[in-house]
Amino acid sequence: MVILGAGHNGLVAASYLGRAGLSVLLLEKNDYIGGASTSQKVFPDYDARLSRYSYLVSLFPEKIIRDLGLNLELRRRATGSFTPYIKSGTHDGLLMSNVDEAVSRRSIVDLTGSETEFEQMKKFYNLSHVFAERAWDSMLEPLVAKEEMKRRFDSDETSREAWRSMAEEPIGRSLEHYLQNDLVRGLVLTDAKVGIFTHPQDPSLVQNRCFLYHLIGNRTGEWKVPVGGMGAVARELEQAARKAGAEFRTNVDLVDVDLGSETKSVAFNADGKNENVDARFLLVNFGRNVLAKYSGKVYQPEAVDEGSVFKMNMLLSRLPQLKAKKYPSEQAWCGTFHSDEGYEQMNASYEQAAKGQLPDKTPCEVYCHTLTDDSILSPDLRAKGYHTITLFGLDAPYSLFAKDNERTRKEAEKKFLTSMNQWLEEPLEDCLAVARDGSFCVESKSPVDIENSLGMYHGNIFQDSPTWPFASLKEQIGKWGVETEWENVFLCGSSALRGGAVSGIPGHNAARKVIELVRSNTKSKHRNVAATA
Ligand SMILES: Cc1cc2nc3c(=O)[nH]c(=O)nc-3n(C[C@H](O)[C@H](O)[C@H](O)COP(=O)(O)OP(=O)(O)OC[C@H]3O[C@@H](n4cnc5c(N)ncnc54)[C@H](O)[C@@H]3O)c2cc1C
Question: In angstroms, what is the span from residue 109 Cα to ligand 1's centroid?
Answer without folding.
Answer: 40
